[in-house]
Amino acid sequence: MTNYKTVFFTLGILQIILGIFMFIPIIAQFIYKEVDSSFFGASIVTIIFGILFFLSNLDHDKKLSLQQAFLLTALSWLSIAIFGSLPFIFSNIEFTFTNAFFESMSGITTTGSTIISNLNEMPKGILLWRALLQWLGGIGIIIMAITLMPIMNVGGMQLFKVSSNDSSEKILPKSKEIALRLIYIYTGLTTLCAIFYLIFGMNLFDSITHSMTTIATGGFSNYNESIGFFNNPLIEVSAMIFILLGSFPFIAYIKFINGNKMIFFNDVQIKTFLKIIFVSIIILSLYLLFTNSNVFNFMAILFNIISILTGTGYVNAQFDSWGSFSLVLFLILMFIGGCAGSTTCGIKIFRIQILYSLIINNLNKMIYPKGIFVLKYDKNPIDNKFISSIISFIYMYLIIFFLLTTLLSLTGLDFITSISGAATSISNVGPGLGSIIGPNGDFSSLPNISKWILSVGMILGRLELFAILVLFLPSFWRN
After folding, report:
1. Count of other CB atoms within 10 angstroms of residue 167
2. Which of 4, 276, 350, 422 could join 405 via S-S bond, C-beta 3.0 to 4.6 A?
3. Taking the C-alpha atoms of 188, 191, 193 and 197 in order, what is their torsion angle to the nearest 10 degrees?
4. Tens-digit pLDDT profile for residues 224-259
């Protein structure tokens, strides 16, 4: 395992950090007089394993090859999900390992699906830990999407290389510099969100936890009714604003700080992202006005479209009662997702843009056979290798979605639960559709095998599919 010392050294650091974060809920336990040994025990176990990995790999070469980058990406999320489940397992609440792992995986992948059916009665420590998992998952995916994935050439992410001269040997030094700036921005947005929540009526605890899951576009809430519990338009408007801020590419924030003050108006992803929201609002509003006007609520339409498109999963209305067309629209929005380099998941806006441009380009070639049409993205030409990686990603995304749907149906779930469960797991959205896992339901009643299938879907979707799938190729390990 000498070749993988850098991988395990980094995993050790991540586990130590995770273990330190487990002490934070202990503060909440003391404040709310809910002290038990769950978080302390889980923290000690996690830190010990982290120290063992750290000390046994001190002589690593401080370089990360492409192969090691893929392995580190997969093991990071898997190990954090495993150790992140320990506080649930050690708690006084009766969590099975399956349920604890599902909740932890849903948290760290910022999915937001939950097996807890009585959130209003959960201990504060558990609620805070769920929020922390999503917050850590949010910043983790941003750093990975901006530093590792472009170099790994996963699904067209090479388009977002910070520098055209990046190579695998330069990953670690460059990552440290970029990661620090991203953490400052991410923490600043979280703090600002918490302040607005506090001003507009949330108590201190709710404002802290909800701000973490809002910026992470994770959607874990402290209440079964989600954001709808507060029944406060100002809180809902604040949530929408900060969900959008978390859905923008975080490299845009760095460019803004560096002097590009018009980046949020000029970025092609952000403009298309906002257009999709606007068009979806118009379509759904017209549909409800003409077919089901008694449930028409513009704030609910706006909020839930933004929440589902970004994969946040907060709800403030029972949108599963808005008619079949509404469900189809929300299912489509689940797949689209937000911007690359943000906390959102899904197919991503830039891939939708390039697929659209490719279709238009091919239609033009049919109309003008002798014409020369260069496919461009943001005024830059893109080559066939890049286009093939985009098409491959979208193809595999749909294949895995249908495979997950089939496997879920084989476990005894009905069609709506199976198809929406597959969509919500691979797109990391949170709530599904229907009476069981819909906006007012949860995943607690699903068979254990269904929860494991959904957990696999979550990590596949969060890590852009190929970062996981490539590990199962024998040629990957031989090279």
Report:
1. 10
2. 422
3. -170
4. 989 989 999 999 999 999 999 999 999 889 888 888
The model's pTM is 0.91
- What lies within 8 Å, CB to CB, of 362 at 6+ separation is none
**What is residue 381's DSSP assignment?**
E
Instruction: Tell me what percent of the chain is helix, strand and coil, each rounded to the nearest 5.
Output: 70, 0, 30
From the list 124, 112, 120, the residue with the least C-alpha distance to 213 is 112
| Conformational region of residue 267, where left means phi above 0, alpha means psi within -120 to 50, and beta covers everything else | beta
Do the beta carbons of residue 216 and residue 279 sit within 8 Å?
no
Write the pLDDT tens digit of every residue in 201-212: 999 999 999 999
How crowded is the C-beta side of 139, counted as CA atoms within 13 Å?
Answer: 21
Span between the terminal Cα atoms of the chain, in Å: 15
Tokens of 326: 């509404």
Distance CA 294, CA 243 (A): 28
Blockwise average pLDDT, block size 10, the chain, 479 residues = 74 93 93 89 94 82 76 91 94 91 94 91 94 93 78 66 48 65 93 97 95 94 91 95 94 87 90 95 93 86 93 86 89 91 89 89 86 80 82 92 96 92 92 84 92 96 88 78
Alpha-carbon gap, residue 227 to 429, rounded angstroms: 15
Q: Which amino acid is at 8?
A: F
Q: Please list, in sequence order, all residues whose beta carbon lies within 8 angstroms of the beta carbon of residue 429, skipping any fewer than 6 positions away.
A: 111, 112, 219, 308, 311, 312, 313, 334, 345, 346, 423
Amino acid at 416: I
Q: In angstroms, how far is CA 135 from the centroid of its own chain?
A: 10
Token pair 């490539």 is found at 470
Partnered with residue 376 across adjacent β-strands are 381
